[in-house]
Amino acid sequence: MRYEDGPVVVGGLDLDLPAGRFHCLIGPSGCGKSTLLRLAAGLLRPKEGEVMVAGREPCAERGRGTGFVFQEPTLMPWLDVADNIALPLRLRGVGRAARRARAAELAETLGIGAQLSYYPRQLSGGMRMRVSLARALSTAPSLMLFDEPFAGLDAIRRDSLGAELLEVWARQGWTALFVTHSVAEAVFLSQKVHVMGGQPGCVCASYEVPFPYPRAESLRSTSAFQDLLGRISSGLGEVAAL
Amino acid sequence: MSRLRSIALPLLFGLLLLGSWYAARPITGFTRFALPYPHEVALAMRAHWRELMPAALRTLHTAGTGFAGALALGMALAVLMTSRPTLRRMIYPWVLVLQMMPLVVLIPLIVLWMDSFRAVLFIAFLIAFFPITASAVQGLRSADPAALELFHLHRASWWQELRHLRLPTALPYILTGAQISASLAIVGALTGEMFAGQVADGRGGLGYWIILYRAEGDTAAMLGAGMSACAMGFAFVGVVQLLRRRLLSRWHESFSPRQEQLRRLRS
């Protein structure tokens, strides 16, 4: 994969993501993580090779069953919370009453039920990200793509929002591909951590995360968790040195 | 308190300006003809009330119609130019050329081309057209790239992207351009009237009377006509300002309560 005239961004990459599982993608800046997500979302077309989501080309199937959570909340400042959440439904021509009902339901799920009529400028950073998550979930996707969504939040909000995201995932069962810079976040959230690196980017190593769900906050302080964290961190260090 | 201050402060400064106007004539030694006193202007306005009032309304009407046309066509052209980069590259330089062309060259020609009401309308349109078009082009191109990706991901049509993303993003830009255009439209109409003269039914706008008073050497009445134009401009820009508040106050950063808090903190 390359941008016109640019260097090859992602090459020789072979990644298989079984459905219904939570995958994390980790790697140094500029290794092509975001490019990979955009390929999966159908926002970019691969120059060589193929991307298949549930056996179909994402470029043609764009948006049907894919939710995308951007690094920034990317809310429309002129829409209130309910309209922001239901924006993808509006673009599909879903009626107002059905949109309102779905927005209220998702806002409840993500703990922003009381803020439905607020405008983005009235919300904290964490709440904006909750709205962004709710919006990505509005179309009931089977694949959710996350582009470092919690990078801008403080550590406490980040951990609690991650735990809540896992609860939603456990109930709804979509496949998750979650890009992050934080090894701890990757290990806490996912069943498998893929380490990307190099120029052009490739998946250098994959680690199984054996801890069962639901995962409690106390998991973070167990020695097994810390062990895995250390192994992945050193793996990441080798990749970054390449 | 703040309401009282917002009326009292400009009034106080206005009195100061009025005082310096009174002081200017003895200091400079100008005659009544070169610099009439404010009360002389006020008296002239009262004396010419019967012609100034309908003339001012006429100017406002022509300027308003020209402005509305500029708003509609400017936005349509901006949408067209931003829909394809090729179109923008092709058309935009010529919009600039039109803007650079001195109006004093165009106006005498325009007056030859059409009847005086239409000529004045067209001149007001021409002068109001550029700020709206330029700001709309800038605004329509300023959509957040991530938001554009979101719309693309959900297979939004060109129209949906325009209606739900590009136009709302452009709205603050367009309203700023519209405010400039609103005041320019009055100037444009006035200038047009100075060249076009009397309209068909025997009445003219403020520009027509300005020429007449000037020929009569009645500078006080001329200034009075200018004051009337100011009042019309204020009314016009005020309407646009109200519209801006109505459309943006709930969400735009320029109306954020945090700005007010910071201002209070600093004082």
Protein architecture, described:
The complex is a heterodimer of chains A (242) and B (267). Chain A is an alpha/beta fold and 242 residues long. Chain A has two domains: 1-65 and 142-242, P-loop containing nucleotide triphosphate hydrolases (Rossmann fold), CATH 3.40.50; 76-140. Chain A is 39% helix and 14% strand. Chain A has helices at residues 33-41, 58-61, 81-85, 87-91, 96-109, 125-137, 155-172, 183-189, 223-241, and strands spanning 22-26, 66-69, 143-147, 175-180, 192-197, 202-208. Chain A has a six-stranded mixed beta sheet, with helices on both faces. The radius of gyration of chain A is 18 Å and the shape is globular. Chain B has 267 residues and is an all-alpha fold. Chain B has one domain: MetI-like (MetI-like fold, Orthogonal Bundle), CATH 1.10.3720. Chain B contains eleven helices and no strands. Chain B has helices at residues 2-28, 38-47, 49-83, 85-100, 103-113, 116-140, 145-153, 158-196, 206-216, 219-248, 257-266. In chain B, helix 3 (49-83) packs across helix 9 (206-216) and helix 5 crosses helix 6 (116-140). The A-B interface holds A 38, 41-43, 62-63, 66, 68, 70-72, 74, 76-78, 87-88, 90-92, 119-121, 139 and B 144, 146-147, 149-156, 160, 164-165, 168, 171, 250-253, 256.
